[in-house]
Amino acid sequence: MSAQTNGIPQGSALMDFIAEMVLGYADHELTLKLEKLGIQNYQILRYRDDYRIFINNPQDGEQILKAITEILIGLGLKLNPSKTTLSNQVIQGSIKIDKLHWIVQKQSAKNLQKHLLIIHDHAFQFPNSGSVVVALSSYYKRIVGFKKISESLMPLISIVVDIAYHSPRTYPIVSAILSKLISLLDNEEIKNDVIGKVKKRFNQLPNIRTYANMVAACFSTICKNIFL
Questions:
Q1: Is 214:170 a contact under the CB 8 Å cutoff?
Q2: What is the 3-state secondary structure (H, E, C) of the chain?
Q3: CA distance 66 to 52
Q4: Are the C-beta atoms of residues 64 and 42 closer than 8 Å to each other?
Q5: Which of 1, 36, 60, 181 would you label with 107, given CA atoms 20 to 30 Å apart?
Q6: What contacts 212, CB < 8 A, 6 or more positions away?
Q7: For the whole model, what pTM was predicted?
Q8: pLDDT in tens, 80-132
């Protein structure tokens, strides 16, 4: 057909509905395909027609990408190679660049998660800097008196851990923030599980022996504060 275009039209509620039906079917087919391939350790988020794939094994990522490509081709769709990228920055990579930029610019209307994302963005540009420590100290002062936080705690904990992972200088203030956030989790089992995951994350650090004493001291503080 002359002047035919391929893709999902935008700006229409009807097109949004049709697109969700088509891509919902693609999601179902992808789940079945990955089950047959024996791939289990993954998470996929889809924002309409934009996929975010989280994997621990790069080979699994390649197979998932291949599976998505094959399924979309069968529906007359295809991935845009120029927008298909690989990143080992989980926090940065999970949010579309334009949305992250907008969040950072809208500092006057920030909830706790947006506040942390602003700090994370700064820490990503200036790792291990004194200004990151100052920003985290301000964040701690904001939450220290809270008895309850209505926002989901796990994303907040994940962002704080990622900041510390790339900025060892922040360990002391991060330990205080994590102590507060983890103390607000529902029960002891969840708290222990989160602390274990945080420790596992830091065990992945290169030259971990260099930071071992500092990490141990920080997490000793966390555990002491939480379980007193």
A1: no
A2: CCCCCCCCCCCCHHHHHHHHHHHHHHHHHHHHHHHHHCCCCEEEEEECCEEEEEECCHHHHHHHHHHHHHHHHHCCCCCCHHHCCCCCCHHHHCCCHHHHHHHHHCHHHCCHHHHHHHHHHHHHHCCCCHHHHHHHHHHHHHHCCCCCCCCCHHHHHHHHHHHHHHCHHHHHHHHHHHHHHHHCCCCHHHHHHHHHHHHHHHCCCCCHHHHHHHHHHHHHHHHHHHHC
A3: 14
A4: yes
A5: 181
A6: none
A7: 0.58
A8: 887 777 777 767 666 666 566 555 655 555 789 988 998 898 888 888 888 88
Contact 186, 153 (CB under 8 A): no
Which two three-digit tokens encode residue 136? 């985290």
Residue 63 in tokens: 């197979």
* Rounded mean pLDDT, 30-44: 91
Bridge partner list, 53:
44
Q: Kindly give, in sequence order, each residue whose CB lies less than 8 Å from that of residue 193, ignoring residues fewer than 6 positions away.
A: none
From residue 110, alpha-carbon distances to 47, 97, 99, 150 in Å are: 22, 18, 14, 14
First to last CA, the chain: 72
Which of 175, 158, 163 lies closest to 216 in space, CA to CA?
A: 175
